[in-house]
UniProtKB/TrEMBL annotation, chains A, B:
It is an enzyme of class 1 (oxidoreductase). Residues 1-37 are annotated as: Disordered. Belongs to the PhyH family. EctD subfamily. It comes from Virgibacillus alimentarius. Its EC number is 1.14.11.55. This is Ectoine hydroxylase. The lineage of its organism: Bacteria, Bacillati, Bacillota, Bacilli, Bacillales. Its cofactor is Fe(2+).
Length: 300, 300
């Protein structure tokens, strides 16, 4: 398959135009969408959309309880799916929860979410990746700017920009507790990064990304195009949808306030993974679903 | 002299009450202040005050030009007053600019500033410390929570809480480019820290503070008392005044936007330094003015 979005092939970075729509259902069908025209406009323009109070207080309490129960249950577990802080043994993320845990499977396939992501991706969807992120007070580390799509394309073989990430806030998000920062409009440009991809890069990159890192000039250019940086804040229970190629990152969390979230990536069934464009062997199933597609789609 | 604010003496942290007023001129004389009653109330309650558009656009442009000229002039200079980034050689701060540079001496003794700090400290004042902070885009490092007074008391022998810091914003301050974060109300409590003070601690502590670091329980308690964390934002030319004991810190700056400022500490002439309460030898003059007091006061 032709590589429409080459990266890590050259020794100079390059900015390529996006070759896919941002919303994959025709805008003439807006009236059938579970989102308002304003919400669709905003997602299409900025590459992300926040919806406050998406989940009820009761649902939030249940999800908060569930993530800490799962953290407790994994405290002494040795598993690649359980990512720990580099300088401590605290659990930072647990992957593949939409598959391994019946409760989170239900959340991942919540009908309200499915209606939205089906519309944005213009097809049936499946879950490409899921995880719980624990960003505790004082200890949450920063995560530098990146396009998820760059990694999914290069390391996982995701052909096109036809995926959307969903972050469910399970703590109140302030501007100061290590929030998600996004560059509005950046979904429309693909930063082709320099350097190769080492084998088994994911073992390090989940802690700190060293390859597929956009260069400073491109980041400066993207913020100039987009007119700045956006930091959605909101109470627990709000959700942020962001397009696969939207440039984002997060700072460290020095405050006593935790910042926990549940994170799912929905990919179009028409955009299933092929061989990684880096030429390396595919990353494991818990990071990039290949085998589990059918089962998960039918769970809808 | 009795140590009213002991720190780094015990192996358990402790929170002590403040023993000094926050505003050292009687509030009955508010009508003689160069600040409004609302501004004085806010400073007294929160421990800081931001004033937007304090300097004119022309003044800002001149200051911006001056800080980069001084940075250029110091590029190849080896001096303790020039602090560089740990992982690069970029200049992060230049100290003692109110003394070494005629232009910054004028700024430091600007009559509008002198009127404010004289009122807040209830006496004549002198400059305890001055510096330019360069926090360039992408590279600005985080600085963890601390009370300046804790260090000035312990390492410099500043007896009482009767000093005020002034930060002049020379870049636009957003919530996302490594802003100053303050815990409102924290000026009213003194966190007595654990551990001793090594000799020449300042050589490391200007890059990353390891001693006089408040514990997490105290920080959590302070934010609960203060109802959160404040992040003043504003255009270049705005100023932030903050009380010597107000707990503050700043995150890293991952964005392309720089965050430069000019920083001066005004101390009451009635609060001149004594021997450091740590028992160590005093820090150098460029960090904590001892000898230069008379000259500087008379410059007013």
């Amino acid at each position: 398959m032709k590589d429409l979005y080459p990266s890590r092939k050259n020794d100079q970075p390059e900015i390529l135009d996006r070759k896919d729509p941002v919303i994959h259902t025709e805008r003439s069908q807006d009236d059938q969408a579970p989102l308002s025209k304003e919400q669709l406009d905003s997602y299409e323009k900025n590459g992300f959309l926040q919806i406050e109070n998406f989940f009820s207080k009761e649902e939030v309490v249940n999800m908060q309880k569930a993530i800490f129960e799962l953290q407790d249950a994994n405290r002494d577990v040795t598993s690649d799916k359980v990512i720990r802080e580099p300088e401590s043994e605290d659990i930072r993320s647990i992957f593949h929860v939409h598959n391994d845990d019946n409760y989170f499977k239900e959340v991942a396939y919540d009908q309200r979410i499915m209606d939205i992501v089906n519309h944005l991706l213009g097809s049936d969807v499946y879950i490409h990746q899921s995880r719980i992120n624990y960003k505790p007070g004082f200890k949450g580390k920063e995560f530098d700017w990146h396009s998820d799509f760059e990694t999914w394309h290069t390391e996982d073989g995701m052909p096109r920009m036809r995926a959307v990430s969903l972050s469910i806030a399970l703590s109140d998000n302030y501007t100061f507790n290590g929030p998600l920062m996004l560059i509005p409009g950046s979904q429309n440009y693909y930063v082709s990064c320099v350097g190769a991809t080492p084998e088994d890069n994911y073992k390090e990159s989940l802690k700190k990304q060293k390859f597929g890192v956009p260069d400073e000039d491109s980041l400066r250019w993207l913020t100039e195009q987009g007119g700045g940086i956006s930091v959605p804040t909101g109470k627990a229970g709000s959700i942020t949808l962001f397009e696969s190629n939207t440039m984002h990152g997060s700072t460290s969390n020095m405050t006593p306030y935790p910042r926990n979230n549940l994170f799912m990536v929905y990919n179009s069934v028409e955009n299933a993974l092929v061989e990684p464009f880096s030429g390396s062997k595919p990353r494991p199933e818990y990071i990039a679903v290949r085998e589990g597609i059918r089962t998960l789609t039918s769970a809808k």
